[in-house]
Amino acid sequence: MKNRLTFLILYTALFLFIPALSGWSQPSQLAKPTLQQLAFQDLGLGVFIHYSIDTYASHGLPPGETPSSSFNPTELNPEQWVLAAKAMGATYMVLTARHEQGFCLWPTKTTDYSIKSSPYKNGKGDIVREFTDACRKHGLKVGLYTAPWIDSNWETRQGIKGANSGRIDKLDDPVLYEKALQKEKEQIRELMTNYGSLVFIWDDHFGRSDALDSIPHGGKFREFYAAITKYAHELQPNCLLLGRDVEHVGTEEGRACYPFWNALNTIDGTTYTVSKTYRWDHCNSGDPLGKFFRPQLSCTTDALSTGGWMWTGSRKIQPLERRMQAYYETIGRGAGLIVNLTPDRRGLIPEDLVAAAKEMGDEIVRQFGNPLAHSELKEKEQLIQFKGPQTIDHVVLMEDLTQGQKIAGYLLEAEVNGTWKIVVNGQTIGHKRIDQFASVTATALRFSVTKSVADNVNMKKIVVFKSLL
Description:
Blueprint: H1 2-22, H2 35-43, E1 45-49, H3 78-88, E2 92-98, H4 127-137, E3 141-146, H5 152-157, H6 174-194, E4 200-203, H7 208-211, H8 219-235, E5 240-241, E6 247-248, E7 263-264, E8 292-293, E9 296-300, H9 320-328, E10 336-341, H10 351-368, E11 371-375, E12 381-399, E13 407-416, E14 419-426, E15 433-452, E16 459-466
Parallel strand pairs: 1-2, 1-10, 2-3, 3-4, 4-5, 6-9, 9-10
Antiparallel strand pairs: 7-8, 11-16, 12-15, 12-16, 13-14, 13-15
Helix pairs in contact: 3-10, 6-8
């Protein structure tokens, strides 16, 4: 009996130790998403509305010194923006409530450099209100943008000018730091208490001090963003913030890494800094065994049209192939995509941009609106039979991420004339992986996970599409 008990103890210890020997973590050790992060990933495609006093800026004036009187749209209609975004297939929108020049699109109490000092509606307007109302009227989630680190109008009045505006150490003076922090917290408070529930705040430049070169700088900059994002989360716990809850992919080109991991380790081990794999204009790969789970989001100013974030004149529409490339290389790799739509000086998105947005939305529906077959089984090995031979060229895979991202390798095989042919030898799946391959005529599709970083792998969905060639 004693020998048998000893054997059982040794066998159990060995069984538990095997994962450590193989180098893989167990599910309990993986970073897991919150319900809000999972819901944000499901939103997929969003639209960025870059619109502010920049649209009316006078040439030759320093940033933040374009007078409020310049802001005077003649046909402003946020509902037109929302309808254009919806036609593209967007599920949420983000408005630049306050961009870097410091001009506020709502009647803030923190500064006169705002819409209340402009001719628009004789100073009685509130574009943040119009925007949030239009989004909710048409069923889109609401997000807002602020730029905590750069407020050119406020900084000019504090004696911070020109090149000093972007300096990491510009608020090292404790008095100046506290003034800036209180101003930013009050603006966040106004936005998060007066306009209903928000799904996302793009607090621009989060992590800038730690991402521009190989040496993380931290300092007061890092402390500043930690204080603001912590305060914002207290105001609306279900609202996600850039940096704290959502990671930037690292570029503005509409491209995410592959392989792609939502888990990551931060520079200082807290939730208030960027990941160790984040560098500006570099691939942000994440870390399969990282401590934190953060969905990644790709913003792009030129995948739909060229010309920068804000309106500076007529923009050139990108070919549909370029627009869809951004979709495949972000959403199709497990990230989110937020596409820039830019209102002109009228306050309207130009007709050609509206048409381009709808064309992209129509193409997404054309490609993915009529699945041939699908499975919602959780198994890591699945066989999907077709009703006779079918020509296929797309498969969409979704991993169940509730216990963390696990899949590191998989195969897709098509049964062609009774023989199994590998059509995809993939790596990560994550929230969504869109595989596009040379069309084959098959009678079945076989999926199998070949590598994972933990046991108990679960799939969420497999969807097969006919060839559109």
